């Protein structure tokens, strides 16, 4: 083999290796979601390192889009916005960054969040990470202490997303260390999920299949119970003469 072929093969090997790395660990696509006035736009600006999104409403902690606090139903417009956001992340987001302010997470907020996440199926939690805003309010308290003392509703949220979270202080967007920490956590999640992105239709089909199997299993269990009941009701009555000459059902 001459030097020219060796160089070409060497370049081919390098590009193949780089393509393999990119394919296995592609840059994570983040979709930022959450209620209105939680600081989603500020989070975007902090991550990008520039004022790409308008913020208003006091310390830049509010935004115009996001879901409301209705616990019973999800308005049609919110569903359309959510599906549109997914379509902008084709073929699908790797990480859903759920923005929650570092304050009391109420039961009504939990119920509203649960309703919205149900639209995306249970599989969405596998790709969800909580992004806590208002990080400056922690002061001397650690995030772990805040989670432990915040109540059962926040505990429920942490269990759902497998305690994957990151704290951001949008008042110090120049602190790039907090952004690099967020992206490192996102890449860890990407590795945990085997590089898979969230694909709504796939999870819908999986849930349909799981429901079908669950129904089939319940039907088989009911059939077994019914069969056992018929057998017990059809026990033969065998004559058993006692000392008094009476006729009794054989105990066996």
UniProtKB/TrEMBL annotation:
<feature type="domain" description="AIG1-type G">
    <location>
        <begin position="79"/>
        <end position="211"/>
    </location>
</feature>
<dbReference type="InterPro" id="IPR027417">
    <property type="entry name" value="P-loop_NTPase"/>
</dbReference>
<protein>
    <submittedName>
        <fullName>Zgc:136870</fullName>
    </submittedName>
</protein>
<comment type="similarity">
    <text>Belongs to the TRAFAC class TrmE-Era-EngA-EngB-Septin-like GTPase superfamily. AIG1/Toc34/Toc159-like paraseptin GTPase family. IAN subfamily.</text>
</comment>
<dbReference type="InterPro" id="IPR006703">
    <property type="entry name" value="G_AIG1"/>
</dbReference>
<dbReference type="InterPro" id="IPR045058">
    <property type="entry name" value="GIMA/IAN/Toc"/>
</dbReference>
<keyword id="KW-0547">Nucleotide-binding</keyword>
<feature type="region of interest" description="Disordered">
    <location>
        <begin position="231"/>
        <end position="252"/>
    </location>
</feature>
<dbReference type="Pfam" id="PF04548">
    <property type="entry name" value="AIG1"/>
</dbReference>
<dbReference type="GO" id="GO:0005525">
    <property type="term" value="F:GTP binding"/>
</dbReference>
<keyword id="KW-0342">GTP-binding</keyword>
């Amino acid at each position: 083999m001459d030097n020219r072929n060796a160089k070409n093969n060497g370049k081919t090997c390098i590009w193949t290796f780089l393509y393999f790395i990119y394919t296995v660990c592609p840059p994570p696509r983040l979709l930022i979601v959450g209620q209105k006035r939680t600081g989603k736009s500020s989070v975007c600006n902090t991550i990008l390192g520039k004022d790409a999104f308008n913020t208003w409403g006091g310390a830049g902690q509010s935004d115009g889009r996001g879901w409301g606090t209705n616990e019973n139903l999800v308005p049609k417009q919110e569903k359309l916005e959510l599906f549109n956001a997914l379509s902008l992340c084709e073929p699908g987001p790797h990480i859903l960054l759920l923005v929650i302010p570092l304050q009391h997470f109420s039961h009504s907020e939990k119920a509203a969040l649960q309703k919205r996440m149900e639209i995306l199926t249970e599989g969405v939690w596998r790709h969800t990470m909580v992004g806590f805003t208002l990080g400056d309010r922690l002061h001397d308290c650690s995030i772990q202490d805040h989670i432990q003392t915040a109540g059962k509703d926040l505990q429920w949220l942490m269990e759902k997303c497998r305690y994957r979270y990151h704290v951001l202080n949008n008042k110090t967007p120049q602190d790039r260390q907090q952004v690099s920490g967020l992206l490192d956590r996102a890449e860890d999640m990407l590795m945990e999920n085997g590089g898979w992105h969230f694909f709504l239709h796939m999870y819908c089909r999986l849930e349909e299949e799981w429901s079908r199997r669950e129904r089939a299993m319940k039907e088989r269990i009911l059939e077994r119970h019914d069969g056992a009941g018929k057998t017990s009701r059809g026990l033969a009555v065998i004559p058993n003469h006692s000392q008094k000459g009476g006729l009794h059902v054989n105990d066996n």
